[in-house]
Specification:
The chain has a seven-stranded mixed β-sheet with strand order 1-5-6-10-9-8-7, sandwiched between helices. It has two domains: 91 residues; 225 residues, Bira Bifunctional Protein, Domain 2 (BirA Bifunctional Protein, domain 2), CATH 3.30.930. Strand 8 and strand 9 form a beta hairpin. The chain starts with a helix and ends with a helix. Helix 1 packs antiparallel against helix 2 and helix 1 runs parallel beside helix 4. The protein has eleven helices and ten strands. By secondary structure, it is α+β, with helices and mostly antiparallel strands. The structure holds adenosine-5'-[phenylalaninyl-phosphate]. The site of adenosine-5'-[phenylalaninyl-phosphate] (FA5) has 24 residues, from strand 6, strand 9, strand 10 and helix 10.
């Protein structure tokens, strides 16, 4: 019988060790220690042992076996409880630690910011936004803007030519990269009837050598108004309203007589900074009757004004950047300042 006790104890200890969760352990304990379990049966058969000394020995062995099993049960139960708690804590864990340094957020390019801001300001003044192609015909870029072939003003636009075989209108001498946004004036007039109130921001190209105020690829915003009874006063008022809306109340504007073949009279427009200094931003004027005619608009019935200025220069001014080239240098130390 002592062998039976040893074997039952070993089996019980093995069952305890292999229980993988509390439910399994409880089941094994009930089986082993209950009346019908191996140790229970041995215990009840103890009374049948006739020899007192042997009964005492067997009883002691059984008690020792029971306490070894109970102790193993308690130890393994405690381990399983701890394991289960750790599993739950891990499953329900919330990671509240912060990034050592939050990933830095980029921003739109300064010119894109100025472009979008300009659109917002002009839309607020009642204008709609128009656009035209960057590869343009000679007719739209020059001819229709009152700069026929051989016109001396063409020399002021250092033009990049693309080809010489596409003729969209009589007199076309070829394709070029538009040197200003003014061809959008003609496209808009040909596509829609007056009254017209549009702005056309876009990229333009000139064979200019980069310096602190010039880039070969830069941006302009064109404005065109065609309606009945439009005068120079409307132009001056619009530019002043724009100056306040874009730069702030400390800024004012002025028009200076100038010359453009596509406007008559023509003016340069400057803005005055709060420190009293003036900066030239662009050109403007009353749309030339020839230009209205090229756009299919009768100059006897309609009049209009147009303006065009450099977006890059406005961005430079707004952020007090001293060199326009810095905006295109992709130097992260410069970009991060804005
Ligand atoms: C024109 O391009 C005319 N089309 C403007 C105009 C439109 C006049 C409608 C009348 C009516 P201008 O060549 O001056 O004009 O250029 C206008 C502005 O573009 C300049 O005042 C300047 O702000 C900007 N600009 C000219 N060249 C460059 C350049 N290389 N880099 C950066 N900005 C430039």
């Amino acid at each position: 019988m002592i062998d039976d006790i040893t074997q039952a104890t070993e089996e019980a200890l093995k069952a305890i060790q292999t229980a993988s969760d509390l439910a399994e352990l409880d089941r094994a304990a009930a089986e082993m220690l209950g009346k019908r379990g191996a140790l229970g049966v041995l215990k009840s058969s103890l009374s049948k042992v006739a020899d007192i000394d042997e009964r005492k020995n067997l009883g002691r062995a059984l008690n020792d076996a029971m306490s070894a099993v109970n102790e193993a049960l308690a130890t393994h139960r405690a381990n399983l409880v701890t394991e289960e708690r750790l599993r739950r804590v891990e499953a329900e864990r919330l990671d509240l630690t912060e990034f050592p340094s939050a990933p830095s957020r980029g921003h739109l390019h300064l010119v894109t910011q100025a472009w979008q801001h300009l659109e917002d300001v002009f839309v607020g003044l009642g204008f709609t936004v128009a656009e035209g192609p960057e590869v343009e015909t000679d007719w739209y870029n020059f001819e229709a803007l009152n700069m026929g072939e051989g016109h001396p003003a063409r020399g002021e636009f250092d033009t990049l030519f693309v080809g010489h075989d596409a003729a969209e209108k009589p007199g076309d001498s070829g394709l070029l990269l538009r040197t200003h946004t003014s061809p959008v004036q003609i496209r808009t007039m040909l596509e829609s009837e007056p009254p017209i109130y549009i702005v056309a921001p876009g990229r333009v190209f000139r064979r200019d050598t980069p310096d602190a105020t010039h880039m070969p690829v830069f941006h302009q915003i064109e404005g065109l108004v065609v309606d009945r009874g439009i005068t120079m006063a409307h132009l001056a008022g619009t530019i002043e309203a724009f100056t306040h809306a874009f730069f702030g109340p400390g800024f004012t504007s002025r028009l200076r007589p100038s010359y453009f073949p596509f406007t008559e009279p023509s003016a340069e427009f400057d803005i005055r900074r709060p420190d009293g200094s003036w900066l030239e931003l662009g050109g403007c004027g009353m749309v030339h009757p020839e230009v209205l005619r090229a756009g299919g608009v009768d100059p006897e019935e309609w009049s209009g004004f147009a303006f065009g200025f450099g977006i890059d220069r406005m961005a430079v001014m707004r952020h007090s950047v001293s060199d326009i080239r810095d905006m295109y240098s992709n130097d992260i130390r410069f970009i991060e300042q804005f």
